[in-house]
Amino acid sequence: MSNVLLSVRGLSKNFGGLAAVQSVDMDLQEGVVTALAGPNGAGKTTIFNLMTGNLVASAGDVLLHGKSIIGKKPHRIAQMGIARSFQDLRLFTHMSVRDNVLVAVEPESWFWQPGGKAAWHKRLETVEKALERTGLSAMADKRAVDLSYAETKFLSLARILATGSKIWLLDEPASGLDLNSRNRFINILREATADGVTICLIEHNLDVMTQLADRIAFLDQGKKLAEDVPEKVLRDPELIAIYFGKSQSGN
Amino acid sequence: MINYILNLLTLATIYSIAAASLNVLVGYAGIFSIAHAIFFGLGAYAGAQFALLIVPDVLLASLIGAVVSGALSLLLALPALRVRGEYFVAAGLGLQMVGITIFSEAHSLTGGHGGLVGIPAATLFGFDVSSPGAFLIVCLVALLLSLAVIQILMRSSFGRALMSIRDNESAAESFGKNVPLLKTLAMVVGCAIVGVAGTLFAFNLAFINVESFTLEQSILMLAMVVIGGVGTLSGPLIGAVFLLILPAILTFIPFIPPTEIGTVQQFIYGSLMAVLMIFKPSGIAGKTGGK
Amino acid sequence: MLFLQLLASGIQTGILYALTAAGFALIFGATKIFHVAHGATFVIAGYAFYECIQLGMWWPWATLVSFVMAILAGILMAVFIYRPIQRSEGSFFTVFVAAFGVSIAVQSLIQYFFGRGSVTVSSSLTMASEVIEGLYLAPILAVAIGVSIVLFGLVVLFLEKKNAGLGLRALSENPGLLEAFGLNAKNLTVLAFVIGSALVVPAAILTSISIGIQPSSGSKVMLISLAATIVGGIGSLKGAALAGLFLGIIENLVITVVDTQWSEAVSFFILFAFIMFRPSGLFGASVKR
Question: TM spans, by residue (chain C) (predicted)?
C-alpha cells in the first residue's frame, strides 16, 4: 500500500441551499491515477477547488501528507505541492511558452528568487526539460496566444510538470486531442506516475479513463457513488445509466 | 524660442517618466489605476516641501518624493487590491476625488488652493542645475534611470509574476503567486517612480497647485499609456510625447480658437482611446495579438 | 430647520442619483459591461433638453427629444463600441478604456459647442415657497419624487412580468437559458442600454432645471452611479437606487458637521469603507475574492 499524498474526509460544500459536494472520502496515493467520473454538475470541479483552497469546505477535511490544509490560501497550497490544471487552460496568453513554464518554477512572490545564479540555472534547466518532454522546445519563444489547440494542451501540462509537485489535479487535460497527441499525452502522465506522482483526473472520455486510470471514483450530485478499478466501475449498469442518462439530457 | 522647446522637452520627459510608471501598473500588472495623478501630486508636494524647508537638491528631493508617494500608495493598495477589478477602479476614483479635496484643504502641507509657490531653483550636490538646458539633462537622466529600473524589474521573475497575474490571475495563484503581495509591490514601485516625476515637475514650474493633479490629469496619463501601447517600454514614451506635442500642433491649425485647444486635444485622445480599443488594443507600439 | 431643509435637498439630489445609478446598475447587472460612458448619456440628455428649450420648443417635445437622444446614444455605444470590442477581445480593460474614451470625447465635444460653464433651464418649478417656518420647498421636489416612483414602478414591473424583462435578468446569470425561451442575447443587450439610458433622462432634465448642467456633470454623475452601484450591491437594482438616494441625503446632511468642500468626499469615504469591509454592498450577492 503506497503512501497517501492527499486525502479528503467527509468533504462537503454547500452553496446556499445547494449541496454541491456531500461527504466525500477519497485517497490519492503515490503513483496512482484516480479518475473522477460522473455527469456534469456532479461536483468534480468543486472538489478540485476545495482541494486547492479556492473554496472553503462547509464540512470535512482535506489532508496533505496527513495534515489539514483547510483554510490555507490557494497560493500557499500550490507551494506546498499541489499542482492544478484548468479545463479552460488559463495560460498566460501574452507571455511566451518558455515564460509560461518559467513562471511555474519561480515560487517566491518577491522581487527576486532565492538561490542566486546556481538556482537560476537549475530553474532554466527544469524549464527546458519540461518543454522537451512535451515537445514544445521548438516554439519556446512563441506567445501562448499564438499556439495551436494541441500545443496549448501540452503547454498546460508542461507548466504542471515543471513545478515538480507530486500531486496533480488535472481537469479534462486531454480533451479534444487527436489520437496521436492523446497517446503522447498519456505517456507523459504514465512516466510521471512511475516517478511517484499521484494524478487525479476529471475526465469524460471513456477511452482515456480505461487507458490511464488505476481507479475511478464515480460522482453524482455531489456524492461519491463508487470507487474501484475501471473494469468494475465501467461495467456497473446503474452507474452507466446515470452517466449516459444525465450526459445526454444534461448540457 | 529655444527655451520654449527645452521646456516642452522637459515636460515630455517628466510625463514620460509618469507614463512609464503607470505602465508598470496597467500594462505589466494589469492594475487599472485611475488615481495616478494623486501620487504624482504627492511626489510634487513632498519634493517641493523638502526643497523649500531643507535643501533644493534635486536628487534628495526626488528620493523623498519617491518614498512619500510609494509609502502612501500602500494606503490604496493594501485594502483595494484584494477585490475585483471593477471595485479597484471605483476605489481608485474615490481616492482621486478625495485626494483632490485633501490637497485643497491641507494648507500647511500643500498650501491649499493657492498651492506652493517660490520653489527654489534646483541644485545637485551644490551645483545649480536650474537652467533650462541643465534641468532637461537632469530629467533625461532620471528618465533613463527609471526606464532601466523598470526594464530590469520587468525582465526578472518579478516581472513575469506580474504578467502572469495580468494574463490570468487564478492560474497565477494556482502556481504559487501571492497575488495581493505582488500587486502591492507593483503599486509601490509604480507610485514611487511617479513620485520622482512629481518632484521634477515641481522644480520645473517652481510652483504647484492642486489643478495639476486632477482626474483629468490621471486620465491623460492613462491615455498616454494606452495610446502609446501597454506593456512595452517605448509605448508610454510615444504616448507621452504624442499627447504633449498634440496641443502644440493644434495651435498651428487656424480655425481652432486658442482657448479651445485643450478641449480639442481631449476630444482627440478620447476618440483615439475608444477607436484603438476596437482596432488595436495594444496601442501604437504594441504587438498585434491574437485573441 | 436647517436639518429638514438639508434633508429635502438631500432627497431631491438622492432621487436624481438613484435614477442614474439604477440605469448604470441595470446595464452592468444585465450585460456585465462596465458602462462608464453612462455619464456621457446624462450630459447628452441634459444638453439636448436645454438646447431644445433655447430653440423655443415646448417642454414636452424637448423632453421627448431628450429621451430619443439619450436612448440613441446608448444604442450607438452598445452597437458600435462595446459590441465590436467584445467580439475581438472583450477584456475588462479594453471595454473600460473605450468607454472612458467615449465619455471624454463627448464631454469635450459638448464643451466645444456650449462652453465649459454651467447652463440652466429656467422654470417655475424651482420657485420655492415657505411650506412651514424655515423650510422652503419647490414643486420640483414633488415632480422628482413623482417621476421616479412612476419610472421605478414601470421598470420593476417590466423586469418581473414581461418576458424580455425576465430575459434581462437571465442574461447575466444564465445566458444559455435565453435561447431556450427564444430570446436573443444581442437584442437584450441593446434593450438593457435602452432602459438604462432612458432612466438617466429625467435626472438630467431635472438637474438642468435645478442646479444647472455643465460638460463635467457627466463624470460627476458617473462617479456617483458607480459608488451607488457598489454600495447598493452589484447586481441589485433596488440596492443601487436606494444607495443613490442614501448618498444624496448624506451628501447634503453632512454639511451640518463638515465644511461643504468635504461633502462630496464623504460619499467616496463611504464607498471606500464598503469596498474594504463589505464589497458585496447592502443588497448584493456575496463577492468571492
Answer: 6-26, 33-50, 56-80, 92-114, 134-159, 188-211, 223-250, 262-280
